[in-house]
Specification:
By secondary structure, the protein is an all-alpha fold. The chain has 16 helices and 6 strands. Strands 1-2 form a two-stranded antiparallel sheet. The protein has a two-stranded parallel ribbon with strand order 3-4. A hairpin with a 2-residue loop joins β1 and β2 (142-143). The longest helix has 35 residues, at 2-36.
């Protein structure tokens, strides 16, 4: 009798615990929807379709300041031919992606050095007349010339100023072009069309991203100055130095090795301790925008930047290889964080579409790769339809749907239904994801 009573009590406790878990999951889902699904006040519309209301407060850090000039921008934009408008937007995305972390100066320096080596004309821009320092290049009593850093102040000023202008200017334009101008038809272009960052999170993203941008611009200025002043590196400018064979082989070697190292670095940052103390800052933005790309912990930012510039100091690399791969990686960093359903081109069979990384932000611990989805397929961290993913489920494996509570399944279904079918190639992928959960709820 006692054994039976103990067993019944245990069963009751389990049922009670299960019910509490389901109620907690339902509450979390409701809070999430309230916090993340709401539209920004300056863009809210009534059901009757009234024009958006605008706020009277000017807040340049919120980026939504472009909403204040929506009608004016729309009026001028409509005067442009469609092909020209699309071309301008494409160029803006490319420039923004290539400059958002301040690396534009490092790219420019390599072009200048290549031109100097080709024409044998001195293009050293760090003269006394420009940097305004003494002939010895003194800064705070330190002789910068000993470290190949003459004119460092000039590089820092130019790097940070131009980077901030491009960050806010081009970023503001792209925000207006998609998130303001086309907000009413988000199902045509947005990966998560029913969800937008709240005004508070949007402002946080810009402020935090701007601070990391300044850090990146400062570090890039040091490296660019060092390279321009003939500091040691393994970058070479004449193909004949190492031959055409190594020139062509170095392209895939650098690209593949970097991407694989970044995959593992990113995955390691998703381990519980590192995620909670470092990477979680970047995952505040469950519906990422282009500004999210720099909104990461400074330690992680420096770590990733070190990986990207490492070929310049590890093995011989032609300047065109280094510069082109850098531009490619930074460009797709913007594309992947844009929240827009960009697709890879036909000549990029290795490149996942933007929804791949958008899924990473939406489901947290899955799809760790950036410019190659093969690593996730190889290591079993590619998103699967029979798994549920949440922020508290680490290691990229998720939770089997057969082991989920009804509340967990309902939350997973809500997430999957919020995805845009147009972000995928074909309709089957999203429908299979949804059907997998619905079948378990029946």
């Amino acid at each position: 009798m006692n054994d039976t009573k103990t067993h019944n009590t245990s069963g009751t406790d389990d049922e009670k615990k299960k019910k509490e878990e389901e109620e907690e999951m339902e509450m979390e889902m409701e809070m999430e929807m309230k916090g993340e699904w709401r539209e920004t006040p300056i863009m809210s519309r009534s059901k009757a379709g009234n024009p958006p209301t605008t706020t009277s407060r000017f807040d340049p850090l919120a980026v939504t300041w472009t909403d204040r000039y929506r009608e004016t921008l729309d009026r001028y934009w409509k005067r442009l031919p469609n092909f020209l408008g699309s071309f301008i937007a494409t160029v803006a995305v490319f420039i923004f992606g290539s400059t958002v972390r301040g690396e534009w100066l490092l790219i420019l320096v390599h072009f200048l050095k290549a031109f100097r080596n080709t024409t044998n004309v001195s293009t050293n821009i760090t003269t006394t007349s420009i940097n305004g320092t003494a002939s010895g290049g003194l800064l705070l009593g330190i002789d910068l010339s000993q470290y190949h850093l003459q004119g460092l102040e000039f590089y820092i000023i130019v790097s940070t100023t131009v980077s901030c202008i491009l960050y806010l200017g081009l970023g503001g334009f792209l925000h207006w072009y998609y998130y303001v101008r086309q907000r009413d038809n988000a199902h045509e272009w947005k990966c998560q069309p029913t969800k937008f960052l709240s005004p508070e999170m949007e402002r946080h993203e810009i402020m935090f991203g701007s601070s990391i941008l300044l850090l990146g611009s400062f570090l890039t200025a040091i490296l660019a100055c060092y390279i321009m002043n003939d500091g040691w590196s393994t970058v070479y400018f004449n193909v004949s130095d190492y031959g055409w064979l190594w020139y062509f082989v170095s392209w895939p070697v650098v690209y593949v090795s970097q991407d694989y190292v970044i995959y593992w670095t990113h995955r390691i940052y998703h381990l519980p301790f590192l995620y909670k103390h470092f990477h979680k800052m970047h995952h505040k933005y469950k519906q990422p925008t282009a500004f999210s790309v720099t909104a990461i912990h400074p330690i992680e930012f420096i770590n990733m930047q070190a990986i990207l510039i490492s070929p310049m100091f590890l093995f011989p690399i032609h300047w065109t290889v280094q510069v082109t791969i850098m531009i490619y990686i930074f460009y797709h960093g913007i594309i992947d964080h844009s929240g827009i359903n960009f697709k890879a081109f036909w000549w990029q069979p290795w490149q996942p579409d933007a929804i791949f990384h958008d899924n990473h932000h939406q489901y947290f611990h899955v799809n760790f790769g950036f410019n190659c989805s093969y690593w996730d397929k190889l290591h079993g961290t590619l998103r699967r339809k029979d798994r549920v993913y949440r922020e508290d489920l680490y290691y990229g494996k998720g939770k089997d749907v057969s082991q989920c509570t009804r509340a967990e399944l309902q939350r997973a279904l809500t997430e999957r239904e919020s995805e845009n079918v147009k972000a995928y190639r074909g309709t089957t992928i999203r429908e299979e994801q949804i059907s997998e959960v619905k079948n378990k709820l029946l």
